[in-house]
Amino acid sequence: MKIHVVEHPLIKQKLTIMRDEKTGTKEFRELLDEISLLVMYEVTRDWEVESVNVKTPVQECTGYRLKNSKVNIIPILRAGLGFVNGVLRLIPTAKVGHVGLYRDPETLKPVEYYCKLPSDKNAQTVVVDPMLATGGSAVAAIELLKEKGHKNISFLCLVAAPEGVKVLNEAHPEVEIYTAALDECLNDHGYIVPGLGDAGDRIFGTL
Ligand code: PRP
Ligand code: URA
Fold first, then answer.
1. 55 in a domain, yes or no?
2. Nearest CA to 94 among 116, 111, 70?
3. Domains contained in the chain, number
4. CB of 164 shorter than 6 A to ligand 1
């Protein structure tokens, strides 16, 4: 499986609080925001840099900048929105596209209802969604991006199920997956076990 589980004591602690059914919307949102920054740090770890000259008040030296500074962040609506502010704090110049998908509760298949993408197709593109469950939503969102010519795509989530990782790996083998946790499995309703419940409802308080 092509997956990076971002191991860090702070992520583990924050995610544990998010999993707790007693944690309310405000704290859940804040923690997601904090974790998004920590996981995004890993997503960007291997991005290439090029050297530039910089003159400090003391002398000239070699500095660095991203070789491809164009970055697209694509939240899958609605729960993916919970990642946007954290990621933008790390990369404030990123463009934000939106893909609207919801899971049909019967079939668990994604249904598309919105798509508005940034124009730069050569940017580094990071699709964000807290939950990778059956993998249907992630696969569909990345298909939409590819159909419109986008490349260099990674997928960032909070909790992944092995079933979703397999489906995403098979559909888009070049896409690197970054997650804060790889959980046990899916239950009969397509929920991640142990997971954290419905991420969208917990972020937006629509339980
Ligand atoms: C959730 C989640 C993912 C999707 C994951 O969204 O945010 O988009 O389910 O499930 P999958 O891997 O089986 O496709 P949901 O459909 O509940 O919509 P919402 O974000 O609007 O609540
Ligand atoms: N979507 C969620 O929000 N949670 C799950 O466990 C699975 C899909």
1. no
2. 70
3. 1
4. yes
